[in-house]
Specification:
It is built from eight helices and no strands. The protein has about 140 residues and is an all-alpha fold.
Length: about 140
């Protein structure tokens, strides 16, 4: 069992989040606590809250370690992107998709395995591109 709260405390993630001003940057982009609360019924209608509730152990032991351990590196990047706004997330999506397209077009292969580098890297780059574009669209729609 991954100890999420103790690792968050050990890594000082709450302090880093406050130092980087991530919450104020989210508010500047239009995501307030009131708007976040208004999203809950929509998330429930889509079945996302039930999905999370039914897969707690998978999330705690599979996704949480990746998110928590990677957070010290990702927090400054996210803070910078939030400072710029939605265009930064669109640029990240285009960059990830472009890199994957380049790897396919160049015919690069992963050494010793012989698999296409575009296919292997695409397992990370395609979801990253979709999530980045989705965050850009979401932040763009929150602007008043």
């Amino acid at each position: 069992q991954y100890k999420v709260l103790s690792r968050v405390r050990e890594l000082g993630l709450l302090e880093k989040t406050a130092e980087l001003g991530i919450l104020s940057k989210l508010e500047k982009n239009g995501l307030t606590l009131e708007k976040a609360e208004q999203l809950l019924p929509t998330l429930e209608e889509l079945g996302l809250l039930s999905l999370v509730a039914n897969n707690q152990q998978l999330l705690i032991n599979g996704v949480a370690p990746l998110a928590v351990e990677g957070a010290p590196i990702l927090l400054p990047v996210v803070a910078g992107a939030l400072e710029v706004g939605p265009p930064a997330f669109f640029l990240a999506a285009a960059g990830a998709a472009g890199l994957d397209a380049y790897l396919f077009a160049s015919g690069a292969e992963v050494p010793f395995i012989g698999l296409s580098a575009g296919a292997v890297a695409g397992l990370l780059l395609v979801p990253l591109s979709v999530v980045s574009a989705g965050v850009g669209v979401a932040l763009g729609s929150l602007k008043n």
